[in-house]
Amino acid sequence: MGQGVLEINDCGLRVFIGTTEVLESPGIAVIEPSRVHIGTSAQMRARSHPTQVNNQFWRRLSLESLKSANQRCRHHADLAYCHLQEIAEHCDLPEELVLAVPGNFTREQLALLLGIINESDMNVVGMVDSASAAIGDLAPSGLQIYVELQLHQTLVSRVIVEQHATVKSAESVADAGLNHFQEAWARVFTDAFVMQCRFDPLHSGESEQQLYDLMPQWVNCAMHQGEVLAELDDRTAKVSLRQLQDASAPILSRVRAMIENHAESDSVSFISHRWADIPGGLQLAQRMYLLCRDSIAQSIKNRWKELRSDDSTLRLVNSISAVPESKITVRLDTPKEAAATHLLFGHRALAAQQPLFVFWHEDKFKVTPTPPDHPAATVTNHAGRLALRVDAGIHLMLNGEEIAAPVNLNAGDRIGIADRQDVITAISVERYET
Predict the structure, then answer these.
(1) Among the four given CATH numbers 2.60.120.1440, 3.40.640.10, 2.60.200.20, 1.10.1060.10, the one describing domain 342-427
(2) The pLDDT of residue 432
(3) Is the pTM higher than 0.85?
């Protein structure tokens, strides 16, 4: 089957043949006394069998003993081996694979991983740091940032791009993984069902499993439509995108702080495709680029001879040839628009530290912090950014185009309605100290 890639990320190990993704399998195991469910089958059982779940085995890859009656699962390395075997059984593996591994793996973990690979059915001929592979085809010269969402943490890598894209450091943001976002969203949906239907989805393992199974499509719907009617056991509850964004905000703020701590003024933050599924995930940084799902596979394909090892001794490659700047098509030469801090209406600039309500009174626009009977829109401050939410049935324009779903406001955005002259302008107020 030729050449391919195995990307190690406990959110989902992914197999590519060339640049075509053929399988994704989450790093989750459900350990029964005589059987191990792993990957997707384990994910579908995890909430209904919580005492049998292990979703730490990739993050804590080691020979640390597990308390398990199953003789196949003596330690985390056994689970990693089971996972690789499960993957091999469910897809036609390429004849040769290059591993893409996260930068937070220790030397001991890398050595253990290679030992596991040698016992598996996979023919691995190279190993590269995911950060350098992800941005090697895209990044301009200078210090760049790669932000990778994992199951239990976020990994922020610093990559120096010159003639080569070289990983200089990788630092984890604890308690900022996909699992933490999912738990935060689950609380939002659970509260909605309790308040609106007097139904607690967490009252049993079975209904909790259904909640987590359906939640990705609910979140996706809310991100596209501004809200979602979640249905579970013939009960429905309404949840807004704003609620999910608010639940995600504390986690995102920690990731932003790490990015700001490591980035320079002209750095670009290259974020993995998984952030597109996180409410608020596309506002991680001012200078940011969302990577495609196959960015790592494409980069490895373009450098196959460079990464392929001719002998059985594999080493981690954390510096790969960079694309000449003249050939880079992704350019972010100027920062994104400044985030709005105030609303300018008439001769007043209103700070949106608390919610502001837009409505009509006597056929004129009004903006007030006091909730009116029939607001047209609400502006809220979310992690330092202003967000505009339009009430259902209102035809509001943003920069001349009608909007329905919530949007973040940048300085210069103009809010109005068709055929009316009244305009509210979002502005950024800077403070200078002497």
Answers:
(1) 2.60.200.20
(2) 42
(3) no
